[in-house]
């Protein structure tokens, strides 16, 4: 159906190569992982004009292409910090689109998920980079301050993917996946993103 939550999930392509996952929290804003925007070789942040948001991407086809006008990252995120290597330290970014996108959105929830809550995760893993994959039974296994761990496997390319569920009859995102390790995934809470300070790094 047109209002299915996966229709709010996008592929974020970098002109420098590679991709991440993102999701529309409103029609002009896409959330993704901050580390996706850091270019390790030249050691600087990618320019907004080098980012392409593809809506409804599947095997080279997509419903809409959106350009990024600007973006903001969490004010405390440092790409080379030890916390960042663990996937912590505010690893999230908000992409400001040049024009509104069509279709459903996945607004962020202002409260963290409940312990042992079941969430879904969907994104574009590099191993199957031209097709979206979804897991519908991710369990919250540990809550931290501004983040939570979950038991769904996720690989490169899925950074920035939402963890979402129905809340009061509407689909909402409780977190944003940023890292995997030890058989678990790490996600920043939607509450931390909504309450967080931001900066433009470029």
Description:
This protein is mainly beta and 202 residues long. The model has no long low-confidence stretch (mean pLDDT 93). The strands form 3 sheets. Strands 1-2-3-8-7-6 form a 6-stranded antiparallel barrel. A 6-stranded antiparallel beta barrel has the order 9-10-11-14-13-12. The chain is built from 2 helices and 15 strands. A hairpin with a 2-residue loop joins strand 2 (19-26) and strand 3. The chain has helices at 82-85, 190-195, and strands at residues 9-14, 19-26, 29-32, 38-39, 44-45, 51-55, 64-74, 93-97, 118-123, 133-143, 147-150, 162-167, 170-181, 184-189, 198-199.
Features:
202 residues; mainly beta; six-stranded antiparallel β-barrel; 15 strands
Number of strands: 15
Helix and strand composition category? mainly beta
Average pLDDT taken over every residue: 93
Largest sheet: 6 strands, antiparallel, barrel
Order the strands across the largest sheet as they lie in space: 1-2-3-8-7-6
Helix content: under 10%
Low-pLDDT stretches: none
Q: Using the CA coordinates, give the radius of gyration.
A: 15 Å
DSSP strand content: 35-45%
* Principal-axis shape: globular
Tell me the span between the first and last alpha carbons: 38 Å
In DSSP terms (H or I, runs of 4 or more residues), the helix count works out at 2
Secondary-structure element string: EEEEEEEHEEEEEEEHE
Quickly describe the structure.
With 202 residues, the chain is mainly beta.
